[in-house]
């Protein structure tokens, strides 16, 4: 199970990489493994400002559809458009080519509520 130490995590199995005031967000290796083969990623909130835990999109696997929750309040400034043609990148490279959105976050204090790699491992029993 790959859980990079330099990232932050949510209880909803998303990872967050902070770079200045931009947060890159995707789903964890654990989440993609639970979902199975991902066939579609939909994000229709580009350029919208969302509250933390608002739904920013969905990920569709062969047998299920799951909502994607914003880990931070802010504006969705970028969607990984390569996922439109290659949604399998979420399975093969969840922390790299499989990233989903970038959020310009508006409340840095929310970063304190994100989980460390160790705390996330406890949630998933790792």
TrEMBL record:
Source superkingdom: Bacteria
Oligomeric form and interacting partners: The glycine cleavage system is composed of four proteins: P, T, L and H.
Entry cofactors: (R)-lipoate
CDD domains: GCS_H
Keywords: Lipoyl
Positions of post-translational N6-lipoyllysine modification: 63
Keyword Transmembrane helix in annotation: no
Cofactor, how bound (note): Binds 1 lipoyl cofactor covalently.
Residue ranges constituting the Lipoyl-binding domain according to the UniProt record: 22-104
Function: The glycine cleavage system catalyzes the degradation of glycine. The H protein shuttles the methylamine group of glycine from the P protein to the T protein.
Species: Maribacter arcticus
Name listed for the protein in its UniProt record: Glycine cleavage system H protein
Signal peptide start-end: none
SUPFAM superfamilies xrefs: Single hybrid motif (SSF51230)
Keyword presence, Metal-binding: no
């Amino acid at each position: 199970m790959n859980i990079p130490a330099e990232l932050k995590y949510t209880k909803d199995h998303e990872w967050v990489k902070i770079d200045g005031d931009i947060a890159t967000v995707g789903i964890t290796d654990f989440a993609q493994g639970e979902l199975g083969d991902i066939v579609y990623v939909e994000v229709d909130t580009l350029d919208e400002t969302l509250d933390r835990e608002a739904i920013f999109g969905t990920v569709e696997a062969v047998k299920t559809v799951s909502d994607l929750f914003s880990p931070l309040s802010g504006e969705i400034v970028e969607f990984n458009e390569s996922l439109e043609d290659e949604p399998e990148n979420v399975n093969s490279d969840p922390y790299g080519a499989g990233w989903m959105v970038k959020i310009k976050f508006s409340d840095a204090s929310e970063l304190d509520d994100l989980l460390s790699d160790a705390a996330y491992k406890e949630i998933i029993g790792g």
